[in-house]
Amino acid sequence: MSILDNLQHIQSVLNAAPQDVNLVAVSKYQPDQKIQTALDAGHRIFGENRVQEAYKHWQSRRDQYSDLQLHLIGPLQSNKTAEAVALFDVIESVDREKIARALAKEMDKQDRHLPCYIQVNTGEEPQKAGILPADLPAFLTLCRDECGLNIVGLMCIPPVDEPAAVHFAFLHKLASENGLPKLSMGMSNDYDQAVDLGATSVRVGSALFGDRDS
Ligand SMILES: *Cc1c(COP(=O)(O)O)cnc(C)c1O
Hints:
Elements: H1 3-15, E1 22-26, H2 32-40, E2 45-48, H3 51-58, E3 69-72, H4 81-87, E4 90-94, H5 97-110, E5 115-119, H6 136-146, E6 150-155, H7 164-177, E7 182-184, H8 191-196, E8 201-204, H9 206-209
Helix pairs in contact: 4-5
Bound molecules: pyridoxal-5'-phosphate.
Pyridoxal-5'-phosphate (PLP) binds near residues 28, 73, 188 and 206.
């Protein structure tokens, strides 16, 4: 299947949903020419999980594609905050207090107040980034009231060895309880389930571009 076929297929699944769903095309570790193919097809929303690589893929394209929308979907190190705020349009991985404070400070400094998602560690996995579900209400208050961040929704990456649908339903419940409208959930193997469970954004890499070079 070509990238164009994949794009069309994924988009048709998203279009069939009752809610609006954005396709975040995850371009990490993908060759440049595949990214260009998606751009040439008119796609404009892309996700990267590392700031450094994102600059390589996107810095020179920012001016060329004025309607580009770049999402940071991976853990942010505090020493990369300034670069992240300058390049990205949406931060999906607000996952701890230190980063919330660093982002707020940098967004004020650059006067770029980007929409943000809180990443929730729905599986409570020790090695995984994200806020524990029980800590979400207090963290949301900190992000909004103390830091002044524009929190629009929640993001999760389910444990690999558990049914993803359980985590998608849980994230949806957490978002409703906390009055958050946006849900970033679902990747190549399960984006269709995420759409059924209310995703407003899916992050798809390999099902669109093919296997990564990593
Ligand atoms: C890499 C990545 C994806 C895309 O994964 P695929 O399985 O290739 O679709 C989605 N979300 C995050 C946070 C990622 O790091």
